[in-house]
Write a structure and sequence with these properties.
The protein is of the alpha+beta class. The chain has 4 helices and 11 strands; from the N terminus they run E-E-H-E-E-H-E-E-E-E-E-H-E-E-H. It has one domain: 2-Layer Sandwich (Pseudouridine synthase), CATH 3.30.2350.10.
Length: about 230
């Protein structure tokens, strides 16, 4: 991305004195990386006009709810909520094939292969390191299924690897076996919502991020009777 290009829009879903939540577009990195492309944290910090702190990450090709803190105290509090698994995230995914509605829980043992930048399945499962993924079928199309997925643990590429291991890679996710990629290198995985206790008020709050306005998303959401 050249320096003369305008920054892409990063929609702000919620903001107050302590934190903000944005709807990250697919294809934009959360932090600066070796590509030199402008990242969400750079764009948002410039538009808001002050330093921000990244609380958690979502992969570059993924869209959806992303949380930032405005001060170190809020960052520490939110990091502790993540460590205690008090932050709840829901994802929507469009996967290849026809998902079996009776398949509602995936369990695998995953390791992070840093060389290939992939999550790989290993044995055994059944201990505290087992990655679990709750899955609910929302809609079926001719070639794709729309799923609601809730990860337990938040391991590296957990959702992408587990859905692929079940025989249903995420649309566009060629790294994990999808038939073809997308021109913008996005994948059909969206961080739909994030819920937690506000670090200043302890009030339970949930923020919902609209999914991409792509035709397949709209078609499958319509089939499911859901709105964006």
């Amino acid at each position: 991305m050249s320096n003369t290009e305008a920054d892409p829009e990063i929609p702000v879903l919620y903001s107050d004195q302590q934190l903000c939540i944005v709807n990250k577009p697919a294809g934009i990195g959360v932090q600066p990386d070796k590509t030199g492309d402008r990242s969400v944290i750079e764009i948002l910090s410039r538009s808001i006009g002050k330093e921000i702190h990244l609380v958690h990450r979502i992969d570059r090709p993924v869209s959806g709810a992303l949380l930032f803190a405005f001060d170190p105290t809020t960052l520490r509090t939110m990091n502790e909520q993540f460590r205690q698994r008090q932050v709840h995230k829901i994802y929507w995914a469009i996967v290849e094939g026809s998902w079996d509605p009776d398949q509602k829980l995936l369990e695998h043992r995953l390791t992070h292969d840093a060389r290939s930048k992939k999550a790989r399945l290993t044995d055994p499962i059944g201990d505290e390191k087992t990655a679990k993924l709750q899955v609910e079928l929302l809609a079926k199309g001719d070639r794709y299924s729309l799923l609601k997925v809730i990860p337990e643990g938040g391991q590296f590429h957990q959702i992408r690897a587990q859905l692929a291991a079940a025989g249903h890679p995420i649309k566009g996710d060629v790294k994990y076996g999808a038939r073809r990629g997308e021109k913008d290198r996005s994948i059909a995985l969206h961080a739909r919502s994030i819920a937690f206790h506000h670090p200043a008020t302890d009030r339970k709050m949930e923020t919902i991020a609209p999914p991409p306005a792509a035709p397949l998303w709209l078609t499958l959401l319509g089939t499911a009777g859901l709105s964006a």
